[in-house]
Amino acid sequence: MESIKSLYPDYHSGFVALVGRPNVGKSTLLNQIVGQKIAIMSDKAQTTRNRIQGVYTREQAQIVFIDTPGIHKPKHELGEFMVKTAYSALNGVDAICVLVNASEKMGPGDQFVIDKVREAKVPVFLVVNKIDLIHPDDLLPLIESYQALFNFEAVIPISAKEGINIQALLDTLVAKMPNGPQYYPADQVMDHPEYFVVSELIREKILLLTREEIPHSVAVQVHSMQRNPDDKVEVQASIIVERKSQKGIIIGHQGKMIKKIGSLARRDIENLLADKVYLDLWVKVQKDWRDRQANLNDLGYRLENY
After folding, report:
1. Residue 131 marked ligand-binding
2. Residue 220 marked ligand-binding
3. One domain, residues 16 and 159
4. Annotated binding residue at 67?
5. CATH number of the domain bearing residue 72
6. Does 14 carry a binding-site annotation?
7. The pTM is what?
């Protein structure tokens, strides 16, 4: 049998997991790499719930990046799913990027993540994000504190938001990828269907516009996407909450909040689909859905998907 190297002598490809504690910028980095929004962003912790794969392709190389939920101590069944999803991404990859926040000192959460990758049999890179928020003189002591814990393959300081040093990160990772096939067409940037991304874009606007318990108690389910007689893509979706009081907050006084959520989400969905969109949103109460496995399965939070 021919070896992979002989079958693909001039092509390098592989899978890279992006891991870290919540809110270190994994989704921002993924969007920057693929050049469009495929993972939602928010200043709320635990924004990412599912594993999202973004595809980076260039001449003679392709990397599939796996954006994972932030590793944290779970408080409910949904949290358990998120953490297990993050851990599952460490299996079968060709490299791991541990993302940390340059503007914060190393904390127990960062140390916990490093402990989880300690047994990895693949190169582990330290990616120090948000370097635009600190003075350059503060960077080296921070890096040294992490290097004292673990022998990283390399350390790459970046700013995902500003696009600083992203190309250096990609060049470093491509050099470490094994010989292999091109897994996805060159113009494909994600592995999730449009239904999933549309639901996430709606949820992102709820994260943006609400606070306290609402962002963590909300899920979004897209029921249909089809062209209507006005030649618009009609999207019908439900916003799921846990209590009637939360439903009232999402709808808002005289429906103002849900109109604002819909207006902002529609813009992003139109950019994603490159088409005019009519967005029809409903709000439903499913008590304690985060702790009910049947509800989690219905909403797509299934470990067997991965």
Report:
1. yes
2. no
3. yes
4. yes
5. 3.40.50.300
6. no
7. 0.72
